[in-house]
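Readers outside the structure-tokenisation community will struggle with the description of the input data as it stands. I therefore recommend that a typical entry be quoted early in the introduction. An entry of this sort, consisting of the sequence and the corresponding backbone structure tokens, reads as follows:
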Amino acid sequence: MESLDLPIASSAQGVVRLPGSKSISNRILLLATLAKGETQIRELLASDDTARMLEALKALGVSITQSGDNDYLVKGIGGQSPVRFPVAEADFFLGNAGTAFRPLTAVLAMAQGHYRLSGVPRMHQRPIGDLVDALRQLGAEINYLGSDGFPPLEIKPAHIHAGRVTLRGNISSQFLTGLLLALPLSEIVAGERVTIEVMGELISRPYVELTIALMARFGVHVEHDGWQHFTLCGGQHYRSPGEVFVEGDASSASYFLAAGAIGGGPVRVEGVGRGSLQGDICFAEALQKMGAGITFGDNWIEACAPKSGRLQPIDIDCNHIPDAAMTLAVAALFADGVTVLRNIASWRVKETDRLEAMARELRKLGAEVEEGVDFLRIEPSPSHQFRYAEIDTYDDHRMAMCFSLASLGTSLRINDPNCVAKTFPDYFEKFSAIVRV
């Protein structure tokens, strides 16, 4: 399907069962692989990103059996140090899946094999130099097969040693996540310690919190001091917890919660609630600041429109919700004033340059947008009169899903709607089920 026409919708109301979290799904697949014992994974996300991780792990010789629609049994390869995969030499194509590419780079650097990793052209434009530099400090042998600092990569066997590692934190939290996930695979014996020092500000901290929490579920504990120093004591190895359930995706929840706030509601999302491990749960709090009515349950969140009838503008630091902040940018079209989203420089190294893309597409709808190095200033069109637009999505799933919300103000066309397959293949079916034309 080259494009999808969305008619103008008058309201939004209903209940949506969320797909599994992409961030949790790929982390758990990797942890289950590296653990000792078998892990039954329930409610794994079915998407392009998880498909790339599954393909890579199976190519490495890992036994993974689908035991239900979204359930998988993984036989871990742990129990030895260092960990070695059954297949010691392989090539991997990982598409544009950063949640697969970055952690696999770190894990394979520890695995004493010969591997080559590549992706789509956009992945080869997404930086990975900080992670490679950190791994080289531990003795890893990694070569660039194209431009320095970017994929594709070649990894060769090397002697990994304990020590102190420095890592910049202002580009992507996935670099720190990959390093943390991989360190228990090295030959760090009891009594030794590896310390990671984060240089500068650590962006997207909740994703690192998620990594540490999931590692603890698999028996490995990370100490940290002020989110600048992370320490792993030697002698720890991953152990299967037996069964793990994947939470619903909090980033995906943002589109439906915003629909409820814009279109009247109530709209309830199921699969994620007040006790979520995911940082993007804070998106609901941002909607509250805009005046939306938000209610939390143990496994659900519900949103409805402000009592005043219109959202209020906000000026907000989005460092901790970089993905869900994109939804705020479209919600800003419905606010009664100027909204400013700050600290979003990481958007520029995602599936596309999201700052530039978001500014361009918002303008098509009639908004005045100022694009800064790390911020967007969004002023809705006068009297909230939207223009019809054909929205380009730049092969970026979140662009497609965010801009579906604009149909609550105007009819529009979404180009390349199939890009949502990266994380949410049936998104538009679920969205159409809650909006009223």
Notes: The domain at 3-19+248-436 is CATH 3.65.10.10 (UDP-n-acetylglucosamine1-carboxyvinyl-transferase; Chain). The CA atoms of residues 197 and 229 lie 5 Å apart. The chain has two domains: 3-19+248-436, 22-233. The longest helix spans residues 250-263.
